[in-house]
Amino acid sequence: MNSRLPDIATFFDGGRLTLARQLAGLRKNALASRIEKTPTAVAAYESGLKRPASATVAALALALDVAPDFFLPRQNQLPTATTAPHFRSLRSTSQISRDQAHAYGCIAVDVSTTIERHVEFPERNLASYPVSSEATADHAPEEAARLLRKQWDLRPGPVGHLVRLAENHGCLVVFSPPANASVDAYSFDTPLRPIVLLNPLKNDYYRQRFDVAHELGHLVMHVDAEPGGRTVEDQAHRFAAEFLMPAEEIADQLPAKADWHRLGLLKQQWNVSLQALLYRARSLKVMSDVTYRNAMTTVSNRGWRRREPGPMPLLEQPSLLPRAVELLQVEAKVDEAALATECQTPLNLFRTITSRIPGTLSLPDGEPAAPQ
C-alpha cells in the first residue's frame, strides 16, 4: 500500500473527490458500488462530513483512475465559475455530461494557473456588456460585438486567427476530450480566466470559428443569464455574426439572391460558412425570408449542412498551453510528467488539455500567443 495514504486520508479534500467523480462521468451511487460503500458515505466524503480511511482512499483512486495525491487540497483552490457553463442545448445534454464537461474545464483553468508559475501569459482583456435574456428586439448583441472589436483594436474587415486572438487577450481555449465529444462548444468564466472549450471532432474550420465567436458572446454578455435558452443562444449567434461580419462592412457585399458563386467568394474572404452568410443576409434584410428558406433548402438537399463545397482550411489550434509546455521542456528541462504532478492531474488528462489536435497545425496567420 502507498505509504502516503494515511497522510492523504488526513488531508483528504472532498471537493477533489467530487471533481474526480464528475470527470469520470459517475453518479454517487455508481461510485459507491465500485468501492463497496453506500451513496451516503460517498456524499459524506464529498461534503467533508466524513474522511475516508486509507484503504478507501486507495479504492477511490483506483475506481476513478487518478493517483491518490489527486485528493489532496490544491495550493490554489480550483476556480469557481462566475458564470454558468453555456451549453447549446440542455435538453440534449445530460446532467452527467454537463458535470463532466464543467469539471474538465475547471481542471484546464487550474492547469493553466499552475503553468503560469513558470511562464507569463497574456493578461485578461475581455469586455463586459451584460445583455438581458429578455431582450429580443434591441441591438444589444451587435453593440456588444462592436465593443469587443473596438477593445481588441481590430482593423476593419475579416477577423484573422480567432483562437489566437482570444488567447492573446487572456482567454483560455482548449479542446474537450474525445470522450466528451457529445457536448458541443461551451464556455464559462472564472476569476482567473475565461475559458472556451471546443469539440475536437467538429472538423470544420468555418464552423469552429463561428463557435469561438459564439462563446465569446456568452462570456461578454451573459454574466447572469440562465444557459441554454433560445433567446440567449440567439443573442450569442447575433454577436458572432456582427463580430465576424460587421454590418457596416458586409451589407453591401451580400447578394439578395442565392448567388452561389458570389457567396463562395465571400466565404473565402470573410472566413465564414455559406450558411453564416445566408443567415447574415437575412438578418440584415438584404435577403428576404422566402429567398433564405429556399437557399437553405438547397443547402440541405445538396448535403452542405454537413460539408460545404470548396477547400477546407486546417482547424485553428490553441497555442498558449502547448507552446508553454514546449518552452518549459526545451529551456527549463521540465518534462510533462513533472508538470502533471505539480498540477495534481493525471498525465493523460494533462496531455489532452495542453495538446493540439493530433495531425493538425495552426494556420500561419500572425504570431501565436507566446508565453514569456
From TrEMBL:
<dbReference type="InterPro" id="IPR001387">
    <property type="entry name" value="Cro/C1-type_HTH"/>
</dbReference>
<dbReference type="GO" id="GO:0003677">
    <property type="term" value="F:DNA binding"/>
</dbReference>
<dbReference type="Pfam" id="PF06114">
    <property type="entry name" value="Peptidase_M78"/>
</dbReference>
<feature type="domain" description="HTH cro/C1-type">
    <location>
        <begin position="17"/>
        <end position="71"/>
    </location>
</feature>
<comment type="similarity">
    <text>Belongs to the short-chain fatty acyl-CoA assimilation regulator (ScfR) family.</text>
</comment>
<dbReference type="InterPro" id="IPR052345">
    <property type="entry name" value="Rad_response_metalloprotease"/>
</dbReference>
<dbReference type="Pfam" id="PF01381">
    <property type="entry name" value="HTH_3"/>
</dbReference>
<protein>
    <submittedName>
        <fullName>ImmA/IrrE family metallo-endopeptidase</fullName>
    </submittedName>
</protein>
<dbReference type="InterPro" id="IPR010359">
    <property type="entry name" value="IrrE_HExxH"/>
</dbReference>
<dbReference type="InterPro" id="IPR010982">
    <property type="entry name" value="Lambda_DNA-bd_dom_sf"/>
</dbReference>
